[in-house]
Amino acid sequence: MILDARAVPSGTTIDTDVCIVGAGAAGITLAREFMGAPFRVVVLESGGMDLDMPTQELYEGESIGAPFVPLTASRLRYFGGTTNHWGGYCLPLDPIDFEPRDGFPYHGWPFPKSHLDPWYARAQDVCRLGRYDYRISGWGIPANKVPPPFGGPTFETKLLQENPVRFGPFYAPELQRAPRVVTYLHANAFHFDAGDTDAEIKALSVKTLSGDSFTVRAHIYVLAAGGIENARLLLASGREGGNGLGNEHDLVGRFFMLHPVYTVGTIVPANPYMNFDFLTKGPWVPGKFRIDPFIGLSASSMQALHLPNIMIDVGFRFAPVAGAVDAVKRLMHGEGPGGSTLADLSKVVRNLEGVTDFATRKLLFGEGIPVEAIRLWGASEQQPNPQSRVTLGSKRDSLGMREVVVDWQLVSEDRSKAAATIRLLGTEIGRTGFGRLRSEFGKDDAWPEDFRGNEHQMGTTRMHRDPKLGVVDENCRLHAMSNLYVAGSSVFPTGGASNPTLTIVALALRLADHIKEKLA
Amino acid sequence: MTAPTIHLRRGVLTAAVAGGLAWVSGRMSLFAARGASVRALSGSDALADLCAGLSSSPAIGEACLHALPGINSKETLTRLILSDVAAIGNTFASTRTLPHDVRECSRDDFRSGRIIAVNGWIFSVTEARLYALAGLLTRA
Predict the structure, then answer these.
(1) Residue pLDDT, tens place only, B55-103
(2) How far apart, in whole angstroms, are the C-alpha atoms of residue A478 and residue A474?
(3) What is the CATH number of the domain that holds A462?
(4) Which residue of A has its CA nearest to B23?
């Protein structure tokens, strides 16, 4: 069931078996897994069912490092969390992302990708995607249709699956019906009390913006509040004057990672009439997933050349007739997003000659619209960096909790290796006769002008078997705490270049299995 | 994956290089378009002929000249291009074979990492020299 925490009388203590903090992709996945379990679950969600600004403002903080998407814009603080505005892009991390790598300090996970595969496969369904198959050949793109240099050995065409399902509205009805899973909206986890021993959470204090407060006592707590908030709550908890929970080795908040994103450049293809189907997205159908190819480095070249992972997204710039041809398609078949009938008719009339030419050429020669240029955008892997960190500032939010200060820091190799990758791409494009690349990257020692960090906040409670190198163990439990677990991208020790949500969901499913086993 | 909003710089340079690529890819029958039959020309004449047929703009030629320090004469550029063509085993035989030979030379450059960044474009050294030569000829 879903309740309003503002109706809970101040001073109440709620006893439960499992308490989940946060109802985003991780928290909702965990809660759904517990719906049929024989134990009681409480989910605490800071927001309501829709965006409200006083709650969203609890995300305010200060950024003092490299630029990234603002803290109050990159995340959403209400039921469903950031899935309320995400793009729905899903793919697993690559096997190499899990491995220790020469030239990449702190790289690797406590287990290989193959260990996570069963949960990745289950995560596909949670994210409303297709089958767990990320080979282009599995989706009707035969290898022989991929032209050099994008069919290996240096660069490859890869793909992601895309479906921006909003976890909140999509999963609220079943959580509403779940008798043993109680979700409290407008309930802000405020402080974990670990007593004097710092070995076990005794209670969690909760506040509402209406001024009430209550306590949750659970056998197990799961922190699923997001890549930055997980660290914030740990740093803000524990004994007065201490340095937070699970922070014996000063690791909580460190290793903060994002994916640096930037314009790679533009390819002018040698043959604008070539078949670009290998880079074409699947059909757009509301509520359904589609595949979305992109360009990346092969694992062998990443390994041999000591280059980080990268995802290169493509956008075609077609000859001017393209918009009109799309309009014709929409008018005839109702396919594709955007446009209105009137606007489409106007486009067709204005470009009638071009549309006729296109139709004739397609009929006679099977040729598509000529591609003038291919624009490229990159998202790179960031090297784990202990100097990149989230700390607490002196300013407090309206609940009285200290706001975060985020110092996103990259190392010089992040830029130089990304630049080397782009130069390699330009060389391969020229060598294979595909065309020529123009890139502003690498002209000097700076990132391209539009460089920034994206919304993929990771690493602040990183996973490692050694407590001196990680906040949580391989089961996502705090090394120092017997009953506190962390879910979400904050546990990622390395982030590859993949969008993180599928991995977040897979890890949540894995954690749910672990907790069910523990409570059995 | 979020595609950031960018301001793509198109302009003259893109068009110029696209024109050059059309030639490099062999889709533009340069000499046929000029109505020339096979003629007995010297290497330098043939290169000049080739440059005259490129759609390359003076701007890209100037940029290539700037990116090739110490090389600022038609004679030097001609000698370097023709010697590179010879170095990969192709000997200049006629105006018909020169585009192919230069294209091969350019690919060989990319294979061996002989590349140069010109205003962000990643060119082979041979094609940068060719655009530079075209620029000088236009200037003349």
Answers:
(1) 666 788 888 999 998 888 999 999 999 888 887 776 655 666 788 888 8
(2) 10
(3) 3.50.50.60
(4) A270
Task: Give the whole-number percent of chain A exceeding pLDDT 70.
Answer: 90
Of A292, A442, A454, the CB nearest to B117: A442
Q: Please check whether residues A31 and A154 belong to one and the same domain.
A: yes
Whether A303 shows a pLDDT value over 70: the answer reads yes
Domain end call among A335, A369, A403: A369
**In angstroms, rounded to a whole number, what is the distance separating the alpha carbons of residues A409 and A385?**
7
B113 touches chain A (CB under 8 A): yes
The residues that bridge with A317 in the sheet, in sequence order, are A373
> Is A270 in contact with B119 (Cβ distance < 8 A)?
no
Same domain as A231, residue A194: yes
Q: Note down the domain range covering A218.
A: 2-319+375-519
Nearest to A436 among B2, B6, B21 (CB): B21
- ipTM of the complex in this document: 0.74
Looking at the 3D structure of chain A, how many domains does it have?
Answer: 2
Is the minimum CB–CB distance between B21 and chain A shorter than 8 Å?
yes
Domain check: are A253 and A331 in the same one? Answer: no
- CB-based contact, A67 to chain B, within 8 Å: no
Spatial contact of A404 and A60, defined as CB atoms under 8 Å apart? no
Does the beta-carbon distance from B14 to A373 stay under 8 Å? yes
Are A439 and B120 in contact (CB < 8 Å)? yes
Query: pTM of the prediction?
Result: 0.86
CB B129, CB B116: distance < 8 Å? no
pLDDT higher than 70, residue A289: yes
Say yes or no for a CB contact (<8 Å) between B120 and A443.
Answer: yes
The amino acid sitting at A155 is F
* A150-159, A317-326, A419-428, B71-80: least confident range: A317-326
